[in-house]
């Protein structure tokens, strides 16, 4: 019987941070003692072009290297992409869609037709408030951890600290920690 991996597909536009969030989550998973892979998929490589990133996380070595066809979670960084058919492709009704939007889960359901669990968070707005930049990745990671517990929150926060303190001031580190916390606390769902 094949091993079951926890699989995440991220949809965003180049430059929004979906690829970085995917890579960050894999590094946090490894630090939590799990096996994990992250990889992006680009179309036209230009800022603003639609792109995807993927994660596989497991308690056993990951032997598969193909794209993710049936994710456990789809994370959407840009709500203007909600009408695209590949957003919900392969996403079962027992799975989760997490969307960075000011829309309600019901409004997202109307736009996508997805019948599964829909969760929303105004991640870009929170990022602007906390880190003064419209890069929603730390907020989205906080929300994803709340919904899935795929990586323990304390590991994510320690990873934020270690990653950001190498390049940024303590003020920026604290802002990103607050962004993760707010993502965890403020994600809303209809399930």
From TrEMBL:
Give the molecular function GO annotations: oxidoreductase activity, acting on the aldehyde or oxo group of donors, iron-sulfur protein as acceptor
- Keyword annotations from UniProtKB, A to Z: Oxidoreductase, Pyruvate
- What positions belong to coiled-coil segments? none
Transmembrane spans: none
Gene3D superfamilies named among the record's database cross-references: Pyruvate-ferredoxin oxidoreductase, PFOR, domain III (3.40.920.10)
Q: Do the record's keywords include Oxidoreductase?
A: yes
What SUPFAM superfamilies does the entry give? Pyruvate-ferredoxin oxidoreductase, PFOR, domain III
Keyword Oxidoreductase present in the record's keywords: the answer is yes
Please list the residue ranges annotated as the Pyruvate/ketoisovalerate oxidoreductase catalytic domain.
Answer: 14-185
**NCBIfam families registered for this protein in UniProt:** PorC_KorC
Name of the featured protein:
2-oxoacid:acceptor oxidoreductase, gamma subunit, pyruvate/2-ketoisovalerate family
| Origin species | Marinitoga piezophila (strain DSM 14283 / JCM 11233 / KA3)
The organism's lineage is: Bacteria, Thermotogati, Thermotogota, Thermotogae, Petrotogales
């Amino acid at each position: 019987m094949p091993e079951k991996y926890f699989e995440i597909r991220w949809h965003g536009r180049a430059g929004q941070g979906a690829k970085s969030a995917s890579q960050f989550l894999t590094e946090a998973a490894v630090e939590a003692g799990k096996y994990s892979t992250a990889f992006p998929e680009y179309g036209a490589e230009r800022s603003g072009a639609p792109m995807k990133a993927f994660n596989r996380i497991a308690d056993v070595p990951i032997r598969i290297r193909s794209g993710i066809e049936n994710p456990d979670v789809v994370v959407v960084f840009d709500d203007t992409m909600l009408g695209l058919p590949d957003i919900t492709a392969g996403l079962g009704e027992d799975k989760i869609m997490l969307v960075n939007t000011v829309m309600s889960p019901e409004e997202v359901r109307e736009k996508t037709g997805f019948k599964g669990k829909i969760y929303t968070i105004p991640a870009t707005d929170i990022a602007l408030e906390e880190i003064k930049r419209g890069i929603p990745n730390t907020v989205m990671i906080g929300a994803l951890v709340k919904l899935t517990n795929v990586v323990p929150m304390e590991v994510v926060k320690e990873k934020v600290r270690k990653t950001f303190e190498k390049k940024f001031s303590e003020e920026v580190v604290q802002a990103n920690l607050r962004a993760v916390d707010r993502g965890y606390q403020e994600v809303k769902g209809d399930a």
